[in-house]
């Protein structure tokens, strides 16, 4: 897995229109339901994967721009090295013009795996498990994520995402990190 970076998000409860009874909240990578702490791209402090290299960078951006981090949850993301276009797997890389120096956390809690669309190739676009309610037709955990990498890869290979959002698709591990831990302040 490739280390991608961090994001602080405001977690949403499962909307009523997602009829997956086991889902309680949405930990998706995309910002469609559970939003990032800010419209962060305009600050240009993100890395080439469009996340942040460290929690300290998020805290600095928030402080410098008077953005509250109250009520946010910190996530650390990694991705499978290849993206899937519906037929083939191919490698992807960060935006070369933006420095990327991710500091991995010393401790992280795996919450599950998300499949995310990247038609434009920059920021994560949609997480069809939540955005397109695919969690109603495939097993997910309480956070609207696959429990394993294998489940995510199998769903992609079997065409589960074919009629959701345009790809390519990337498989992300979604890890929570405690804001107060040493892992979050390195």
Summarize the structure.
The protein is an alpha+beta fold and 186 residues long. It contains three helices and nine strands.
How helical, in percent, are the residues? Answer: 10-25%
Tally of distinct domains: 1
Largest sheet: spatial strand order: 4-1-5-9-8
End-to-end span in angstroms? 21 Å
Round the Cα radius of gyration to an integer and report it: 16 Å
Q: What is the structural class?
A: alpha+beta
Shape type: globular
List unreliable stretches of 5+ residues.
182-186
Continuous helix count? 3
Chain-averaged pLDDT: 92
Percentage beta strand: 15-25%
Number of strands: 9
> Sheet with the most strands?
5 strands, antiparallel
The H/E string reads EEEEHEEEEHHE
């Amino acid at each position: 897995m490739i280390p991608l970076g961090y994001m602080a998000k405001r977690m949403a409860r499962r909307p009523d229109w997602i009829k997956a009874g086991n889902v309680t909240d949405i930990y998706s990578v995309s910002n469609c339901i559970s939003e990032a702490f800010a419209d962060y791209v305009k600050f240009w402090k993100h890395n080439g994967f469009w996340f942040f290299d460290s929690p300290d960078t998020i805290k600095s951006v928030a402080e410098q721009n008077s953005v509250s981090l109250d009520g946010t949850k910190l996530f650390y993301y990694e991705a499978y090295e290849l993206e899937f276009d519906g037929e083939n797997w191919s490698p992807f890389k960060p935006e070369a013009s933006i420095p990327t120096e991710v500091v991995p956390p010393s401790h992280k809690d795996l919450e599950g795996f998300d499949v995310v669309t990247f038609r434009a190739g920059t920021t994560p676009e949609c997480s069809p498990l939540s955005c397109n309610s695919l969690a109603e037709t495939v097993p997910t955990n309480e956070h609207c994520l696959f429990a394993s990498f294998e489940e995510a890869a199998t769903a992609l290979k079997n065409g589960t995402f074919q009629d959701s959002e345009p790809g390519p698709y990337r498989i992300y591990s979604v890890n929570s990190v405690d804001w107060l831990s040493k892992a979050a302040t390195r």
